[in-house]
Amino acid sequence: MTIIDYAEAYGYNSSAAAIIFAIVYLFFCGFFAWRFIGAPTYVYAVLALFCAIRVTAFIIRAIMIKSAASGENLNLLIGDQVLFAVGFFGLLYAAYTLVLDRGLLSKAPPAEDRLHQLGSNRRLFRILLMVGVALGIAGITSSSDNSSSSSASALRKASLIIFLALTVVQAYLTFVLIRRELQDTVQLAGFGARHGAFILCAISLLLLVREAFLAATISNLKKETDEHFWYPLVALPEVLTVMLYCAPGLVPPRSELPN
């Protein structure tokens, strides 16, 4: 029976990097959980969950690198890949929700173009996100049975295309929000409240960097999972995005949002 070192095959090399990211995300998980307890909002809940998922995923990654037996465990690899795929749902939806919530507080007239109206449909956005997640999970599990399966590759590509399109939509909504907030004359308290649109712009750019890299390597799994590219173009943009959410006043309290 052939023994496959899945950790090596998928480019898992640096246990130190995985441990560092796990510790960083553990801190942020506690931070957002604390913020949620003090001011319950959907954004803080999703971010705390996202960080918890990333802690688990990076711990699995580190274990697979350090332990030869674990590195040969296909179920651990599938679990790790699924966690990384599912986690992005929370990060993108948190950014999307925050843009729409801040738009509700803006005194400037809302955009009336068709793209903005469709993009602002939260139910539709959630459905498309769940479809993207489902396709991604199906692609990962299918490829585990047959790495050369064309259907598995098609499922993964479809999932990535959906996430890329939704990331572009979120970036467009952020651009519209910037224009609206620049028209507002009300001075808000807190750095995040005053400069929230520009912080969200940075978040959108980081998410686009992540998705652009994955789209560029959609047919080259070896390059996609190469840690020399994966950490600076996937893992780092994600953790920088999480850091930006810590800006005081960025997330409006639920009590300030209109019913």
UniProtKB/TrEMBL annotation:
<dbReference type="InterPro" id="IPR056119">
    <property type="entry name" value="DUF7702"/>
</dbReference>
<feature type="transmembrane region" description="Helical">
    <location>
        <begin position="12"/>
        <end position="34"/>
    </location>
</feature>
<feature type="transmembrane region" description="Helical">
    <location>
        <begin position="124"/>
        <end position="140"/>
    </location>
</feature>
<feature type="transmembrane region" description="Helical">
    <location>
        <begin position="83"/>
        <end position="104"/>
    </location>
</feature>
<keyword id="KW-1133">Transmembrane helix</keyword>
<feature type="transmembrane region" description="Helical">
    <location>
        <begin position="160"/>
        <end position="179"/>
    </location>
</feature>
<feature type="transmembrane region" description="Helical">
    <location>
        <begin position="41"/>
        <end position="63"/>
    </location>
</feature>
<keyword id="KW-0472">Membrane</keyword>
<protein>
    <recommendedName>
        <fullName>DUF7702 domain-containing protein</fullName>
    </recommendedName>
</protein>
<feature type="transmembrane region" description="Helical">
    <location>
        <begin position="191"/>
        <end position="209"/>
    </location>
</feature>
<feature type="domain" description="DUF7702">
    <location>
        <begin position="17"/>
        <end position="184"/>
    </location>
</feature>
<keyword id="KW-0812">Transmembrane</keyword>
<feature type="transmembrane region" description="Helical">
    <location>
        <begin position="229"/>
        <end position="251"/>
    </location>
</feature>
<dbReference type="Pfam" id="PF24800">
    <property type="entry name" value="DUF7702"/>
</dbReference>
